[in-house]
Design brief:
Blueprint lengths: L1 H23 L12 H12 L1 H15 L5
């Protein structure tokens, strides 16, 4: 599960993150730190495992809320 989720996040970073930045104007950086939410989630999954890392990533996206700005 861990490697599959890392692959999914990497594909998201390459394709969809670029689309969000260029078309919708959504910033790739969180308002509080220099890491993007996807990079933070990837590092959390590698450090804590799939379940806790995913939870931390979802929590960060909700807190950052880049889609409502």
């Amino acid at each position: 599960m861990r490697s599959g989720s890392i692959l999914f996040i990497s594909i998201y970073q390459i394709f969809f993150s670029t689309l969000l930045k260029n078309i919708l104007g959504v910033s790739s950086f969180c308002r509080n730190t220099s890491l993007s939410c996807s990079e933070y989630t990837k590092k959390s999954i590698l450090k804590y495992g799939f379940f806790k890392g995913s939870y931390l990533g979802i929590k960060r996206v909700i807190g950052c809320n880049p889609f409502i700005r």
